[in-house]
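Researcher: Quick test of sequence recovery. Tokens follow.
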């Protein structure tokens, strides 16, 4: 059973349309008492920018002087990108996302510590899988690699084609098709030690990366804690100054 649609979703769209599509998500969020991210999510998932303009005509309204002094130009097709100076604000990815991906896009944790936690968890999973492959390799996993060698053993006549000789006489030359046949087959065994060492090298690299991520997380957490302590000290000093001023009165 699908989840009931949030009634504020329709109100957010109406506010945006009533503003002639100029109202910012932050203003809509403030009016409805919801987060900016929620409004941006609805705007992307519901494709507000792609909704038809309605009866209002494109371009300037009657009596405006927007084009005063402008000699005009060749123009361009609908939704062209001639006015785009750089890609900082262009949502070039929007038309490449599926509906589920648009939903998940705004669920991504952009907090640096949260991203580091995800990377550390993924590395732990990869290390576990590598250890499982190592155990299989010790049991002889991988099998043999079969190499075959083929060569031409005979030519098969595949019709004829006309050809002129040096004297200009026409002759029919047979068209030969080479027939390949397997002449040698070798089975190459993969040394267990070689495979195990390769897996262990990969595990070592992943563990090194995990250690660096943990160190980075510690530094970020320490910095955030220091900033919080500094803010508390400033607040405490402000309260002490305020108490001193009240006592002086």
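Model:
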């Amino acid at each position: 059973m699908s989840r009931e649609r949030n009634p504020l979703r329709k109100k957010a769209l109406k506010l945006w349309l009533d503003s002639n599509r100029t109202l910012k998500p932050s203003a809509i969020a403030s009016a409805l008492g919801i987060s900016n991210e929620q409004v941006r999510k609805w705007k992307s998932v519901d494709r507000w920018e792609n909704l038809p303009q309605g009866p209002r005509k494109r371009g300037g309204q009657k009596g405006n002087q927007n084009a005063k002094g402008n000699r005009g130009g060749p123009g361009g097709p609908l939704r062209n990108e001639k006015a785009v100076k750089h890609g900082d604000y262009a949502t070039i990815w929007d038309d490449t996302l599926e509906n589920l991906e648009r939903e998940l896009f705004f669920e991504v944790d952009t907090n640096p510590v949260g991203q580091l936690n995800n990377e550390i968890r993924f590395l732990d999973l990869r290390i576990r899988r590598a250890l499982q492959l190592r155990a299989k390799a010790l049991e002889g996993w991988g099998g043999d690699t079969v190499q075959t060698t083929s060569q031409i053993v005979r030519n098969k006549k595949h019709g004829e084609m006309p050809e002129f000789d040096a004297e200009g006489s026409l002759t029919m030359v047979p068209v030969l098709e080479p027939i390949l046949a397997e002449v040698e087959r070798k089975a190459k065994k993969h040394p267990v030690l070689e495979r195990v060492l390769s897996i262990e090298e990969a595990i070592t690299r992943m563990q090194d990366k995990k250690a660096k991520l943990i160190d980075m997380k510690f530094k970020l957490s320490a910095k955030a804690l220091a900033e919080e302590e500094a803010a508390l000290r400033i607040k405490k000093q402000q309260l002490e100054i305020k108490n001193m001023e009240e006592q002086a009165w």
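The helical segments are 7-18, 25-32, 36-45, 99-105, 112-138, 192-248.
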